[in-house]
Amino acid sequence: MKQTFLFLLAAWTVLMPQTMMAQERYQVGVCDWMVLKRQKLGEFTLAKQLGCDGVELDMGSLGKREAFDNQLRDPEQAARFRHTADSLGIKVGAVAMSGFYAQDLTKKDTYMALAADCFDTMDKMGDVRVAFLPLGGSGNEWPTDKAKRKIIVQRLHEMGEAAKARGKRIGLGTDFDAKGNLKLLKEIKSDGIGIFYSFQAAIENGTDISQDLKRLGSKNICAIHASNTDRVWLRDDSLVNMPAIKQTLDAMGWSGWLFVERSRNVKMVRDVKMNYGNNVRYLKEMFNSYPTPEVALNSEGRDPNYVKTIIGRSEKATDALSITYTPMGENVRNIIANRYFELNDIYAERDSIAKTDKKLAAAQCDSKLYRSHFAFDANLSKYLKPHEVERVKDVMTFDVVKVTYEAQCDMIPTLTDEEKAQIMLWLKEARELAIDAESSKKKHEVFGKYKGRINNYLAKRGYDLTKEREEWYKRVKERGGTL
Question: Residue 476's CB: how many other CB atoms inside 10 A?
Answer without folding.
Answer: 15
